[in-house]
Structures are given as C-alpha cells and as structure tokens.
Amino acid sequence: MRFLKIFYLIGLLLIILSCTKTEEKPDLVVDIKVSKNGYEPNVITVERNKVVLFRITAVDEGIEQEPNSKYYGHCFYILPPYDVMVENIKNGETREVKVKMIYPGHHIFTCPYCVDFFPTKGDIYVK
C-alpha cells in the first residue's frame, strides 16, 4: 500500500512538472507574426523557468479560407516536451498563450497546418 502511495505521488509530481501552460504573471512578452512566409521572429531565446506570454498575430488567411474548416487560419505549436498549441488564428487576429519555459535546450515551434506548404517553422532556445 505504501508503495502505491509513493508511486501515485511521483506520478502526480511528474504531471505537475510537465504542465507548462500557466496563468502566472509573464516575465517576458514575445510578439510573433505568422503568415505563409513563416514566423517573425523565427528564432527566440529565453531564460529557463521564465514565464513567456506569446502573442501570435496572423497576417494572412493561412492555408484554408473556409471558416468551418479544421485547418482555417494559422496556429502556433511548440513541439513536445512543451506540447502547447494555439489553433485557428484568423487573419488579423491575435491570440495569446503563457508558457513556463522549464525545459532547457533547443525547441521547435510550427504551424502543423501549413508546414508542408509554407516555411512555418521557428526555434526557441531555452538557456
């Protein structure tokens, strides 16, 4: 029984530590524009354990122009271990997400909708 409690607590701790989306006050704001030409900026450097407010603005319609389509607009996806996604950012719209940058190293962000058609990829370096 004691083993199960320890196993449960370790699992809970791993879940808590792996959650990077947050409602904490941001330490840094990064404004990003996304279009068929890619992200601007497409290289971002931040300090580890800082909360970053990413403000993503779509400056064109993206790959799909039908508002009812799953692939309408652009998105901003930081690949695992962050696994943070902001979907369906419409032309002229700004969407926000706060992320606690807890994993050091090189990480990629992209628009999975457009990646096969347009150069929508960027790099985040967490020091």
Q: What is the gist of this entry?
A:
The chain is mostly beta strands and 127 residues long. The chain has one helix and nine strands, in the order H-E-E-E-E-E-E-E-E-E.
CATH topology call: Immunoglobulin-like
Order of helices and strands: HEEEEEEEEE
Task: Categorize the overall geometry.
Answer: globular
The CATH H-level homologous superfamily: Cupredoxins -  blue copper proteins
Q: Tell me about the largest β-sheet.
A: 5 strands, mixed
Q: Give the helix/strand class.
A: mainly beta
Q: Which stretches are low in confidence, meaning pLDDT under 50 for 5 or more residues running?
A: 11-18
Number of H- or I-type helical stretches: 1
Strand content: 35-45%
Biggest sheet, spatial arrangement of strands? 3-9-8-5-6
Protein name: Putative lipoprotein
Organism: Sulfurihydrogenibium azorense (strain DSM 15241 / OCM 825 / Az-Fu1)
Pfam families: Cupredoxin_1 (PF13473)
Domain EfeO-type cupredoxin-like: 12-116
